[in-house]
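As agreed, record passed on underneath.
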Amino acid sequence: MYIDFFVSNAHTHISGKSLIPENDPTVLFTTAGMHPLVPYILGEHHPGGKRLVNYQKCIRTADIDEVGDPSHCTFFEMLGNWSLGDYFKEEAIRMSYEFLTSKKWLGFDRNTLSVTVFKGDELVPPDEESASIWRALGIPDQRIYFLPREDNWWGPAGKTGPCGPDTEMFIDLGKEPCSPGCRPGCYCGKYFEVWNDVFMQYMKKDDGSFEPLKNKTVDTGMGLERTITMLQGKPGVYDTELFLPIIEIIEELSGHHYGENPETDRSLRIISDHIKASCFILGDEYGIKPSNLGQGYILRRLIRRSIRHLRKLTPEGGFLDDIADTVIGMYGDIYPELKTNRETIASELNKEEERFSATLKKGEHEFEKLLPNLMKNPRKIIPGRVAFRLYDTYGFPLEITEELAQEHGLSVDKKGFEEAFQKHQELSKSGADKSFKGGLADHSDMVKRLHTATHLLHKALRLVLGDHIAQMGSNITAERLRFDFSHPGKMSPGQIAEVEKIVNEQIEKELPVSYEIMSLEDAKNDGAIALFGDKYEEKVKVYSIKGFSKEVCGGPHVENTGELGSFRITKEQSSSAGVRRIRAILLDKQEN
């Protein structure tokens, strides 16, 4: 219905993208539908036009420990529509209102709809425009809430960039207010958020001030799971058909039934969510494997937490692949990559269960070794760093350490554990770029220059090493580019020098950089290189560096290679089996 509604309002239906973010190195996974569209929100022209709509698979990891209650999910699908410099607040809000309340569409009672808008501060005025549009649609002042920046402001991806106020839509569930200050966004559960319209109307500058944008955009998001829960009047997302088939197979295999015991229900929800999320991560076009860093660390944590709760239900375990089959059966037609990668998903889940069984034994053995010294502690507290070492080194869940501690009259310093865990997460995030397939740190002039240089580098590598060269990933910051490519062996110093020479020759020629919009088939027939494994729309942008290279790419790029300065390769090394990695920089001519 969502797609149909916006297509009927002249939006182009575009496909969702990978769970691994291409244009936002600040996050480990795609957490919203806007991530793949960052270049276009920042001004690049999209092949689909100025009005877009899609659904996007997403992973959010901040609330993993909250999963188990009726509402939190790790994996979810986000419905989104965008205006790239076309309509703005008036039309966006009116379409949101129509889709939510019209009997032809979702049909929510308009009298239960409450909205929030930005209240303004010393830097930006209140969003009276959005409020007046809601009033004109019949929402009374008592259901329009002006809230501060932390509630109704969408900041830039980095320190500077496009940003602006948002307006959020909530359904009032009819519960009594929890306090005189009860309002949308309150955690008491009276108000249920269903939609968010973000209005990118300002540019945050280096000095922290804001100036109006010429090219204003709209970025919206509606969570599928939450909306279905509201439409069906269910108590939580796990009571909808998006989770019940998974819970039913766990019931069948474990002998426990949903709704009989709060603690068992929590385990059933955790297993169903975490295995679903794991299937999508493992089955993604750029599938991640369990590891101790970045995305792989999150995946391992999800799988092991689900195994832990599965063993609380049944000591035997061993049927993760059966649960995965149910997930694939539910989603495989919509996300065919799940069917394609079915064997990988099952294999990795089973391997991780085997590893976890072994690490549990090692962890228990290590705990027994530590126990004599732990018992000497007069406070009878296991230090947080010790509990975290058991977790990090042996995969030993904190709750198991707590159980064993309790059996011996000990407790665990959970605060110390969380501090150690937080420190590890920060290190993990700092290393997350190792898995990004095309991350741009921002859209500054330097990043644009380096992004353009990757096109020159890609073509030069093919000229020197052969047409088997294919891009396997890239990560670009304002300081350097990093480019991964398929190649069986180390490059010789002569080959590196030749690649560097070819790139600099194209810079010296001051070649114009331009793009055309065409079908993917026409692009390939025209000799354009497309990124392996990516999903493309019916129409794509093909960037050409005149007389030298053509690639399917969303941008952004400079207009002429003469803007690049001087190209220098700083390192060539192995990235993984059959994949090499080049790091390179651009220097001003006088620095060379």
Summary: The chain has three domains: 2-238, 243-434, 437-591.
